[in-house]
Write a structure and sequence with these properties.
Length: about 375
């Protein structure tokens, strides 16, 4: 290895699974220097983020063991060898919020932590001033333009009763923290209200949420937050989704912003935005029809419908789609053969939270 040109060595190492690289740091000092160097870290992250690579998934154990995690690296294992590996991170029993470029964001009642589970690097963010009556939504992502990691905190505070004894609308305030800074910055008031359930996805350097519906349920919208410009914007949504929607969920598949929406035939449509922020580029790419397993459907009178906790998790390079059932079970869907499969994970699989993750050696 020492006789090879440095660029060849870097290219070889950048193709290895991140878990192998982490273990290889202990081989010798020269390897440790190369593996921890910013050139290889950036090159490896770029390669692992390419669309032809399968992701890693991290599972957080249920209470009281919130500091215990499992992960499965689909890029490192063969189709018949998906072993769950465990690891431990001290995050003050925080809830797993999001993943970005190998870094994880955790939030507890007392603190917000950012850590890299492979390098064990961890940092606790400055405390936020909050009130017990406030409800918050937390976002975490990376700006590819400024190369900065940012945490977004959106707080809704219910106002007092109005003169007609009705609760006034929520008021929201927005704060942002850039990793490496010493304090939070205020961005003023948010013009939108977001659904509190997990709906955050990241695409094109922006965080996305589903907006809170008003009196007219057809007014649900996708709202983005540009991590570079630090501004909110409504994303154009294909009309058919809002017209036929019983529920819809956001997801990122192969780098594209997608909407998984129930359709009029009691099936599931997955719409893909091929060109970001272009309404005409929405394409219905997958249709999961009426042959769904009974676990994926419920019955309300004569009309079957999808349970609201049903989620599309991610897709793989072989075209299969990983789905999360309402009972926190996982199932693979093969759109080519229109059939469902058991993921066949080796090891215990009970979790409190889960995120799609791209492992990296990024240092905090």
């Amino acid at each position: 290895m020492e006789r090879l040109p440095r660029d060849v060595v870097l290219d070889i190492l950048s193709r290895l699974p991140v878990t192998t690289l982490a273990q290889s740091k202990s081989v010798c000092r020269s390897w440790q220097s190369i593996i921890q160097g910013s050139v290889l870290v950036d090159k490896h992250l770029s390669r692992m983020s390419e669309l032809e690579n399968d992701p890693c998934i991290i599972f957080q154990s249920p209470p009281p063991l919130l500091d215990h995690y499992y992960f499965v690296d689909f890029a490192a294992y063969s189709e018949r060898d998906k072993r769950l590996k465990s690891f431990w991170v001290s995050t003050m029993h925080g809830k797993l919020v999001a993943s970005s470029n190998g870094l994880l964001c955790f939030c507890s009642s007392s603190a917000i932590h950012i850590c890299n589970p492979l390098t064990r690097d961890s940092v606790q963010l400055p405390k936020l001033s909050s009130d017990p009556a406030e409800l918050g939504i937390l976002g975490f992502g990376f700006s590819p333009t400024t190369k900065e990691y940012k945490v977004l905190d959106i707080i809704y505070q219910r106002q007092r009763l109005s003169s007609d004894s009705h609760l006034a609308p929520f008021q929201s305030k927005v704060q942002i923290f850039t990793l490496g800074d010493s304090q939070w910055r205020s961005l003023g008031m948010a013009p939108y209200q977001f659904i509190a359930r997990q709906s955050q996805v990241t695409a094109s350097g922006r965080l996305h949420w589903i907006s809170q519906p008003g009196e007219d349920l057809m007014k649900d919208r996708i709202i983005s937050f540009d991590l570079t410009a630090e501004q909110f914007q409504a994303v154009p949504l294909v009309d058919h989704v809002t017209l036929n929607r019983r529920f819809f969920e956001l997801v990122t598949l192969r780098g594209h912003l997608c909407v998984a929406a129930s359709n009029a035939s009691c099936g599931l449509d997955i719409w893909v935005m091929k060109e970001y922020n272009v309404k005409e580029s929405w394409v219905k790419e997958f249709i999961i029809g009426g042959y769904l397993p009974k676990e994926l459907r419920s019955t309300n009178g004569r009309i079957p419908f999808f349970k609201p906790d049903f989620r599309v998790v991610c897709s793989f390079k072989d075209g299969k789609i990983l789905l999360k059932l309402w009972r926190k079970e996982l199932i693979l869907y093969d759109p080519v053969h229109e059939k469902f499969e058991d993921p066949m994970f080796e090891g215990a699989l009970q979790w409190h939270e889960m995120v799609v993750h791209v492992g990296s050696l990024v240092s905090i």
